[in-house]
Specification:
28% strand; 12 helices; alpha/beta
C-alpha cells in the first residue's frame, strides 16, 4: 500500500497558496478522495509552545476537512514557511504581523478556530477579530483569563482545560438526573477535586458552583495528586449523599458512584475517550456557538 503521508516542503510566503494547491493534488493521487474543507484551525504561540502543536494539526489536515496553520512568533530572524497537504507551518513571524499572516492564509469563507498557545495580549486581541472561536491553552492562564473575560463579547471562547473536562462534567450532570440527587442540590456542603493541574480543578469547581448557584456554603478543596492526569477524583457530598468520579487504573475510563439515603448505591465505568490533542481539537471544531457555561465558570475563576 502506498504511504499517503507527505512531508511538508519549504516555500516562500508568497507561494503558499500555489504550494497548497500542488500538495493537495499530490495527496489526492495517493489517498482516498478528501472531504470538502469545512474550517481553518490556526495555532499561534511562541516557538517552544507551537513545536508540539505541529504534529496533531498535520494529522487533522491529512484526515481531511480542515486547513491547519501553525504560526510561531519568536527568536528566528526571518519568516519560514513549510507546506503540506492543507497544512502550513510558519516560523519567525514578528508578533506585529501574526494577524496579517492569519488573514492571508485562512479560508475566509469558512469558520476559523484559533488555538492560542501564548503570546502578547495585543496579538491575541488582533487575532480575535479574525476568529469565530478561540481555544485558550497556556500553562499559567490567570492573567490571560482575566483579560478574556473583558472581551467575551467579541467572539466565542473556550479553553483546552475546559474541553478535557467535557466527559467529567457530563458524568457529574448525569447524577442530577436522579430525583433524589436533584432535590438535594442545595444541600451539598463539600467539594473536593484532586488532580495534577489545580487550574483544571478550579475550572471544574467554578462550573459546578455556577451551575448549582452555590453561595459560600460549600467548602471547596482543590488538591494536587502528584500524578499525571489533570483530574484524578471528584467528590461531592452533603446531607448523607456522596457523588464520586474517579479515574480508573487503566487511565482510560472514569468510575462513577453515588450513595444517597434510602436508595441503593449506584456505580459504573465510562470511557474517557478523545483525550489526545487531535480528539480535543476535533471536539472544539464541531462547536460554533458561544459556551455560556464556560463563560460563567471563567468569570467565577477570575473572581476567586
Amino acid at each position: 500500500m502506498t504511504d499517503a503521508r507527505q512531508e511538508p516542503a519549504d516555500v516562500a510566503f508568497a507561494d503558499i497558496e500555489s504550494a497548497l494547491a500542488v500538495r493537495s493534488d499530490d495527496h489526492r493521487a495517493v489517498a482516498a478522495p478528501p472531504r470538502a474543507l469545512t474550517a481553518t484551525i490556526v495555532t499561534v504561540g511562541p516557538d517552544d509552545r507551537v513545536e508540539g502543536a505541529a504534529a496533531p494539526l498535520q494529522k487533522l489536515a491529512e484526515s481531511g476537512g480542515v486547513r491547519a496553520i501553525v504560526i510561531a512568533h519568536g527568536s528566528s530572524p526571518e519568516t519560514r514557511a513549510r507546506v503540506g497537504a492543507s497544512f502550513v507551518a510558519l516560523g519567525g513571524v514578528p508578533p506585529a504581523f501574526v494577524d496579517n499572516a492569519v488573514a492571508a492564509i485562512r479560508l475566509s469563507s469558512l469558520p476559523t478556530l484559533v488555538w492560542w498557545r501564548g503570546g502578547p495580549i495585543d496579538v491575541l486581541d488582533r487575532v480575535v477579530a479574525l476568529a469565530d472561536r478561540v481555544v485558550l491553552d497556556v500553562e499559567t492562564p490567570d492573567d490571560l483569563w482575566a483579560h478574556v473575560v473583558t472581551i467575551l463579547d467579541r467572539t466565542a471562547f473556550s479553553d483546552l482545560r475546559w474541553t478535557r473536562l467535557t466527559r467529567w462534567r457530563a458524568l457529574m450532570a448525569q447524577f442530577f438526573d436522579m430525583p433524589s440527587i436533584a432535590s438535594a442540590a442545595s444541600s451539598f456542603t463539600r467539594l473536593r477535586v484532586e488532580g495534577a493541574d489545580p487550574l483544571t480543578g478550579r475550572l471544574f469547581a467554578a462550573w459546578l458552583k455556577t451551575s448549582l448557584k452555590w453561595e459560600d456554603s460549600v467548602a471547596i478543596e482543590i488538591a494536587e495528586s502528584g500524578r499525571d492526569a489533570p483530574i484524578e477524583t471528584v467528590t461531592l457530598g452533603g446531607a448523607g449523599i456522596e457523588l464520586r468520579l474517579c479515574l480508573a487504573g487503566s487511565r482510560r475510563c472514569v468510575e462513577t458512584s453515588a450513595t444517597a439515603p434510602g436508595q441503593p448505591a449506584t456505580s459504573g465505568v465510562v470511557s474517557l475517550a478523545g483525550q489526545t490533542l487531535e480528539g480535543l481539537l476535533s471536539e472544539e471544531l464541531r462547536i460554533r456557538s458561544r459556551d455560556a457555561a464556560f463563560e460563567l465558570a471563567l468569570r467565577a475563576c477570575v473572581r476567586s
